[in-house]
Amino acid sequence: MRLENYASITLEDLSAHNLISTHEHAIGSIKRKAEFGHIPYEGLVHFYVMARTGISQAEYKALSSSLESNVYKTEKISRYSYPFWEELEPYAIPTINKDLEIKLNSTMRLVE
Description:
Number of helices: 2
Radius of gyration: 19 Å
Helix content: 10-25%
Order of helices and strands: EEEHH
Shape: extended
Number of strands: 3
Structural class: alpha+beta
Distance between the termini: 28 Å
Largest sheet: 3 strands, antiparallel
């Protein structure tokens, strides 16, 4: 399931420029080895647009040789330079659901 939120109320203006956030939820199973069988898998992704900038085609061509085309080759995956999650209000990101927060604080632990 995928849900997209836009800063527009008309269908003609549904473009990446007006995108506010996307939410994806996937449920399935993964088969690793025969002895393990199918392992349940559930993924939840929230993406919020915090800033919009652009570059010209000439700037892109100048940078293209240094860009990584495969996210699995880079060590910079999910490495955040500042803790934006501590101040969500300026970015219009909703706070965590109270029931989920209780569950996270009681049965789950942060792994770094």
